[in-house]
C-alpha cells in the first residue's frame, strides 16, 4: 500500500517542486534599458560649478563624485556608456578648495555654519590673491565643469592662466599653464575624446554673479553676446555629430540664498526689539542699486549673509544696520546684501531672455532640453518627493540645497540627473534608468 | 500597522479576517478546501465547515479532529518608477496552522466544535535599501483565532450554526526607515493585539443529494494594539530629541465577510463547489497610529488606504478516484480592494488569480491525509508618481509590483 501511495503522490510532489522554482516573479524584461536613438559610449559634460559638483561653497571630492555628470555617466553605463573621467582631487586633497559645514548648534538650536579648510590649495597665484589649487594631471578629462565661468568668459584668453590680472583657479588646474580660452579647451577635448553625447549647462553665472552681489558686481551678460557665444559652444560640441542635452538657467531668486531671510520677518523683529527706541515706528531700510534709501518691501530679496549684518553695530549715535525711521533717519542695509525690486525684475527678465536663447539654440540643433528654470520654480513652490521622502527648497532642512544656499546637495544633484534623464529619454526615445535620489544625502549634520 | 498580514494572508495589519476574500487574504482553513479553490460555504466536507459555514457543521457526517498546516512561500519583485533595478524580498517562510475538532451524537441533530486557525500569519522583508524603505522595511503579523461553534439541523435538509470568533492572539511587528537629512534612522513598532470578539453564523440547505447551498457571515473585528513598543535605532544624537516616543497604539479593521456557496454532487464520486465572498473592505479607510511622545513633531500619523468592498469568486471540485483516494482541483479570482495609487508595501495587492490542487488518501476507516497546494498569482501592478500625487498618497513609492505565492499544505484527519 505504501508503494501505491508513493506512486500516486509522485506527480503531485513533482508539480509542487515546479511551482516553487517558477515562483519568483521577474519584471526585468519589462523594464529593459535602451539607448534609443542616442549613443552614450563617449560622454563629455560642459558647464560651470553645477557641472563640476560644487557644493557648500566649495569644490571637494565628495561633491565631485556626486556631480550630476558622474551620476549620469553611471546610468549611461546601463545603455552602452563607457568610463567617465573627472578631474578629481585625490584622497589627501579631499577637502579641495575648502567648504562650508555645520559645526554645531547655538543655544536656540540653530546650526552654526563654519569652514572646513582647503587641503588642495597650493599657494597664491601671480595676482597675489587667487589661491592656486592642486593641478589635475590626467589627460582623459570628460567633466569640463569650471566653477564661476560665464558664457561671457568662454572666449577670454588667459581665463585659466596664472597671471597678474587675475584668473579662474578651477580652470587653471585643468590646463597645463596655457592661456587657452575655455572654448579652445572644449574644442581640444572634443577632438581628443570624440564624444557621442554631451551635456551643456552653462549660463547660470551670466545672471548669478549680478544677483549674488546684490546687483553690485558682475553685470548681466547682454543677450546678443550670450547668443553668439552660446551658439559657438554648441557648434563645437555638435560638430562631430554628437547628440546631447542642454539645460536652462533656473531663476536664482528661487534659491535659499534669496529666500531664507524674508523682509516681513526682519521688519517684525525690528518692531518688536525693545533695544530700539520707539521700535514700533522703526522698520528695515535698504540702499538700492540706484543709491537711494527707502523702506524695504516684500518685493526686495535679502541675501542670506544679511542675517548676520542686520541689527549689528548700533550705538548711542548710530542706528543698528538696516534700522531706520525714514529715508533720512536710517542706517540702511548696504546694497550688496539686498537684491532690490528693480534688480529682481532685471534678473528675472534677463533669465527669461537667456533661456529663450538656449531653447532656440537647442531646437535649431535638435537637442534635448532640461528646463531647469521651470523645474526649480515648481520645486520652490511645492517641493519634490523622492520615494516617500519630502524635499523642499528650504535652507538646511530642505535636503536639496547645500549650505551656500545656491548649489545642490548630493540629493539635489541626483534629482537633477533624473530630470535630465527624463528629458533625454523623451527626446531620444531612450530608456536610460533613473537613479534612486533618496539614497543620496541632503545637508550633512555633525 | 500590522498590515503585513497580508501578503499572504492578506493584508490587513492586524487583520484577521479569516474568511475574507480578496485584498489581504489567502484563505487557508481546511486543507481539503484549499485544494478546491477555497470553496466550502455550500459544502459539508469536514470539520473545517466551522470556518466556511458553521451552519454546515451539523451536516458533516463524521465527528473528528483535523489538524492542518501550510507553508507559504511569497516571492515579490519590485521596480521603482523610472528605474530598472529589481528588488526582491529577503525571503521568509511562514507556517499557518489550523485545528478543527467536531463532536456530537452519532445520530443526533447537533454538532459542536472548536476551531483554531491562523489566517493572517505572514511576513514580508523587503530588500536592504529598497526604494520604499521609508514606507516599510519589514512586517510580521501573527494572529490566532479560536472559535467555539455550535450547529443544529432543523430538519434533515436545513441546518444552522454559529461560532464565537475570538481573536485570541495577535502580534504585529512593523519596521521602516526614517529619512534624516544625511542618513536613515529606523523605527520598529512591536505590539500585541487586545483580545477581541466577533462571530460567524451560517445556514446550510441541502434540498437533495445532488444540491446544497449555504450562506454565511463573519463579523468585523477591530484589531487593536494599545501600548505597543516603539524602538528607534541608527538615529544620531543630533536628531535624537525629535524621536523620543516609546509607546504606540493602532487599530486595524478586519472587515466583515458575507459568503454564498453552492455545492453540486452529480454522482457519488464528484463534488463541485462554487463560492462568492463579499468583503466590506471599505471599512479600512486609514491606518492611524498614535504615539506617547511626538515623532518628528507629531504624536499621530495617518496614512490613506481607502479600500473598496471586494468580491472573490471561487470554484473547485473533488473526485473520488477510489474509496481511499480523492483528487481535487480549483481556482479563485480575487478582486483587489486596493485602488490605483493606494498600493502600499504591506499589501502590494492587485487582482489575484489562484489555482489549487489537492489529494486525500485514507488509511483505513479513521485516518486520512490531505495534501494541497495553492498557486497564487498577484497580477503585475504599476502605480505612478502622478497617481500618488493626485491622491496625496506620496508616503508610499511609485513603481511596479508583482507577487507570486505558493502554499503547500498538509492535513491529518482522525474521525470517530
Commentary on this structure:
The complex is a heterodimer of chains A (446) and B (416). By secondary structure, chain A is α/β, with parallel strands linked by helices. Chain A is 33% helix and 13% strand. Chain A is built from 13 helices and 15 strands. Chain A has helices at 2-21, 49-52, 61-65, 68-76, 169-172, 182-193, 205-212, 223-238, 256-259, 263-271, 341-365, 372-382, 410-428; strands at residues 43-47, 99-105, 111-116, 121-124, 131-133, 197-201, 243-247, 283-287, 293-295, 301-302, 323-324, 338-339, 368-370, 384-386, 389-391. In chain A, the strands form 6 sheets. Chain A has a 4-stranded parallel β-sheet with strand order 1-6-7-13, with helices on both faces. In chain A, helix 4 packs across helix 13 (410-428), helix 6 (182-193) runs parallel beside helix 8 and helix 8 (223-238) runs parallel beside helix 11. The longest helix of chain A is centred in the last third of the chain and has 25 residues, at 341-365. Chain A starts with a helix and ends in an 18-residue tail after the last helix. The mean pLDDT of chain A is 93. Chain B is mainly β and 416 residues long. Chain B has one domain: Beta Barrel (Porin). A 14-stranded antiparallel beta barrel of chain B has the order 1-5-6-8-9-11-12-15-16-19-20-21-22-23. In chain B, strand 5 and strand 6 form a beta hairpin. The chains are: A alpha/beta (446), B mainly beta (416). At the A-B interface, helix 1 and helix 13 of A face strand 2, strand 21, strand 22, helix 5 and strand 23 of B. Chain B: Residues 1-21 form the signal peptide.
Amino acid at each position: 500500500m505504501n508503494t501505491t501511495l508513493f506512486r500516486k503522490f509522485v506527480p503531485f510532489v513533482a508539480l509542487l517542486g515546479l511551482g516553487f522554482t517558477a515562483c519568483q516573479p521577474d519584471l526585468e524584461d519589462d523594464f529593459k534599458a535602451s539607448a534609443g536613438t542616442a549613443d552614450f559610449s563617449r560622454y563629455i559634460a560642459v558647464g560651470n560649478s553645477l557641472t563640476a559638483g560644487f557644493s557648500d561653497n566649495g569644490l571637494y571630492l565628495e561633491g565631485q563624485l556626486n556631480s550630476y555628470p558622474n551620476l549620469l555617466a553611471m546610468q549611461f553605463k546601463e545603455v552602452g556608456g563607457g568610463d567617465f573621467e573627472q578631474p578629481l582631487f585625490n584622497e589627501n586633497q579631499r577637502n579641495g578648495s575648502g567648504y562650508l559645514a555645520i559645526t554645531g548648534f547655538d543655544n536656540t538650536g540653530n546650526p552654526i555654519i563654519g569652514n572646513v579648510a582647503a587641503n588642495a590649495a597650493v599657494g597664491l597665484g601671480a595676482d597675489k590673491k587667487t589661491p592656486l589649487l592642486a593641478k589635475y594631471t590626467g589627460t582623459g578629462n570628460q567633466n569640463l565643469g569650471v566653477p564661476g565661468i560665464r558664457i561671457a568668459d568662454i572666449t577670454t584668453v588667459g581665463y585659466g592662466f596664472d597671471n597678474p590680472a587675475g584668473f579662474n583657479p578651477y580652470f587653471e588646474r585643468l590646463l597645463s599653464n596655457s592661456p587657452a580660452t575655455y572654448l579652445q579647451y572644449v574644442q581640444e577635448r572634443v577632438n581628443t575624446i570624440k564624444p557621442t553625447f554631451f551635456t551643456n549647462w552653462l549660463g547660470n553665472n551670466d545672471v548669478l554673479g549680478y544677483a549674488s552681489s546684490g546687483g553690485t558686481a558682475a553685470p548681466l551678460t547682454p543677450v546678443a553676446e550670450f547668443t553668439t557665444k552660446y551658439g559657438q559652444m554648441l557648434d563645437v560640441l555638435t560638430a562631430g555629430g554628437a547628440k546631447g542635452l542642454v539645460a536652462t538657467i533656473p531663476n536664482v531668486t528661487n534659491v535659499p540664498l534669496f529666500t531664507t531671510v524674508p523682509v516681513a520677518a526682519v521688519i517684525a523683529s525690528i518692531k518688536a526689539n525693545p533695544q530700539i527706541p520707539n521700535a514700533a515706528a522703526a522698520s528695515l531700510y535698504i540702499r538700492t542699486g540706484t543709491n537711494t534709501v527707502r523702506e524695504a518691501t516684500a518685493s526686495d530679496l535679502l541675501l542670506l549673509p544679511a542675517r548676520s549684518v542686520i541689527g549689528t553695530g548700533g550705538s548711542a549715535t548710530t542706528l543698528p544696520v538696516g534700522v531706520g525711521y525714514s529715508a533720512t533717519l536710517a542706517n540702511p542695509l548696504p546694497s550688496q546684501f539686498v537684491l532690490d525690486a528693480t534688480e529682481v525684475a532685471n534678473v528675472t527678465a534677463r533669465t527669461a531672455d537667456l533661456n529663450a536663447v538656449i531653447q532656440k539654440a537647442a531646437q535649431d540643433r535638435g537637442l534635448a532640453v532640461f528646463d531647469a528654470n521651470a523645474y526649480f520654480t515648481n520645486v520652490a513652490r511645492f517641493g519634490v518627493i523622492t520615494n516617500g521622502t519630502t524635499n523642499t527648497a528650504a535652507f538646511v532642512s530642505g535636503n536639496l540645497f547645500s549650505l551656500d544656499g545656491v548649489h545642490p546637495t548630493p540629493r539635489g544633484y541626483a534629482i537633477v540627473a533624473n530630470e535630465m534623464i527624463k528629458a533625454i529619454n523623451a527626446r531620444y526615445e531612450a530608456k536610460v534608468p533613473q537613479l534612486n535620489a533618496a539614497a543620496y544625502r541632503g545637508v550633512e549634520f555633525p | 500597522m500590522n498590515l503585513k498580514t497580508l501578503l499572504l494572508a492578506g493584508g490587513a495589519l492586524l487583520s484577521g479576517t479569516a474568511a475574507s476574500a480578496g485584498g489581504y487574504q489567502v484563505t487557508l482553513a481546511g486543507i481539503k478546501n484549499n485544494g478546491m479553490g477555497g470553496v466550502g460555504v455550500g459544502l459539508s466536507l469536514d470539520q473545517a465547515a466551522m470556518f466556511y459555514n458553521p451552519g454546515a457543521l451539523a451536516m458533516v457526517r463524521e465527528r473528528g479532529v483535523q489538524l492542518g498546516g501550510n507553508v507559504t512561500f511569497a516571492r515579490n519583485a519590485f521596480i521603482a518608477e523610472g528605474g530598472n533595478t529589481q528588488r526582491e524580498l529577503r525571503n521568509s517562510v511562514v507556517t499557518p496552522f489550523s485545528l478543527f475538532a467536531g463532536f456530537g451524537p452519532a445520530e443526533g441533530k447537533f454538532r459542536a466544535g472548536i476551531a483554531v486557525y491562523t489566517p493572517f500569519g505572514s511576513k514580508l522583508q523587503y530588500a536592504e535599501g529598497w526604494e520604499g524603505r521609508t514606507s516599510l522595511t519589514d512586517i510580521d503579523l501573527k494572529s490566532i483565532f479560536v472559535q467555539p461553534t455550535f450547529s443544529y439541523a432543523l430538519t434533515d435538509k436545513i441546518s444552522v450554526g454559529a461560532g464565537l470568533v475570538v481573536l485570541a492572539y495577535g502580534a504585529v511587528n512593523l519596521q521602516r526607515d526614517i529619512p534624516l537629512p544625511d542618513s536613515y534612522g529606523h523605527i520598529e513598532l512591536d505590539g500585541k493585539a487586545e483580545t477581541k470578539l466577533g462571530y460567524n453564523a451560517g445556514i446550510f440547505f441541502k434540498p437533495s443529494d445532488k444540491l446544497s447551498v449555504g450562506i454565511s457571515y463573519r463579523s468585523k473585528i477591530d484589531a487593536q494594539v494599545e501600548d505597543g513598543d516603539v524602538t528607534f535605532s541608527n538615529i544620531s544624537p543630533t536628531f535624537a530629541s525629535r524621536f523620543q516616543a516609546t509607546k504606540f497604539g493602532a487599530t486595524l479593521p478586519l472587515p466583515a465577510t458575507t459568503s454564498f456557496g453552492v455545492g453540486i454532487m452529480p454522482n457519488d464520486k464528484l463534488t463541485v463547489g462554487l463560492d462568492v465572498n463579499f468583503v466590506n473592505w471599505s471599512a479600512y479607510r486609514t491606518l492611524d497610529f498614535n504615539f506617547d511622545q511626538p515623532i518628528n513633531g507629531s504624536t499621530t500619523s495617518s496614512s490613506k488606504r481607502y479600500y473598496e468592498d471586494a468580491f472573490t469568486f471561487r470554484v473547485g471540485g473533488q473526485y473520488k478516484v477510489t474509496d481511499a483516494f480523492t483528487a481535487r482541483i480549483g481556482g479563485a479570482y480575487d478582486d483587489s480592494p486596493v485602488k490605483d495609487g493606494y498600493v502600499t508595501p504591506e499589501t502590494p495587492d492587485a487582482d489575484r488569480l489562484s489555482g489549487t490542487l489537492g489529494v486525500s488518501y485514507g488509511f483505513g476507516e479513521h485516518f486520512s491525509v490531505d495534501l494541497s497546494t495553492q498557486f497564487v498569482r498577484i497580477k503585475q501592478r504599476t502605480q505612478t508618481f502622478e497617481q500618488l500625487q493626485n491622491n496625496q498618497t506620496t508616503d508610499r513609492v511609485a513603481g511596479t509590483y508583482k507577487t507570486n505565492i505558493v502554499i503547500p499544505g498538509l492535513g491529518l484527519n482522525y474521525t470517530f
